[in-house]
């Protein structure tokens, strides 16, 4: 089986224990496994080192690892919840199956962070929660298929999936409403989160976005890790 392509940090894999900073599981102690490579190109991406080879050296940023080695690194950390993030993890869904199998057998709860452009295929039964974040027009993914109906339809039909929309301003609301209606996503499975890589940006966008959530029955998420540690890797 092929190795997983893991993001490299300070000479080792970007696998670390922290708290989940956003979304449905915010506040839970979690071990993060950051995979490399993505099929989208968001202008505000805070992990561009996992895919932007015009700015970063792929050989320095990507570490191939067998599933067993990733599992051993996870097992050495305390949290029993694992968040597999990226990049876009489902680009490696076939390679993920051995790792997911080991994690399930050991009793871990596994979340996958995904942009919603790829269904999980054979990895699906091994994942307890899908954090789906379809990218809106402000992400800057011109010419890329940021909305793929078949994949979004799959996630909308699975109650393990929650939908987290990153919102910059009021203009984003019409687009996310259109997506929610097109795929019949219940409001209770929708989370709105302010876009921001600094605490000030998040605080500025939070009050009006929280009001929208109150009015429309959506859930609100801040970015706890940014508020606590700032835009810093490995926390």
* N-end to C-end Cα span: 30 Å
Main β-sheet description: 8 strands, mixed
Count of runs of 4 or more consecutive helical residues: 7
The top-level CATH class is: Alpha Beta
The average pLDDT value, as a whole number, equals 96
The total count of strands amounts to: 11
Shape: globular
How many whole angstroms does the radius of gyration measure?
A: 17 Å
Low-confidence stretches: none
Query: How many domain regions?
Result: 1
Architecture per CATH nomenclature, i.e. the level-2 architecture: Alpha-Beta Barrel
Helix-and-strand structural type: alpha/beta
CATH topology name, in short, is TIM Barrel
Strand content: 15-25%
Order of helices and strands: EEEEHEHEHEEHEHEHEH
- Taking strands numbered 1, 2, ... along the chain, how are they ordered across the largest sheet? 3-4-6-7-8-9-10-11
CATH superfamily: Aldolase class I
Helix content: 25-40%
Characterise this structure.
The protein is an alpha/beta fold and 235 residues long. The protein has one domain (4-229): Aldolase class I (TIM Barrel, Alpha-Beta Barrel), CATH 3.20.20. Helix content is 29%, strand content 22%. The chain has 7 helices and 11 strands. The strands form 2 sheets. The chain has an 8-stranded mixed β-sheet. Strand 6, helix 3 (93-105) and strand 7 (109-114) form a beta-alpha-beta unit. The longest helix is centred in the last third of the chain and has 18 residues, at 199-216. It is globular, with a radius of gyration of 17 Å. The mean pLDDT is 96.
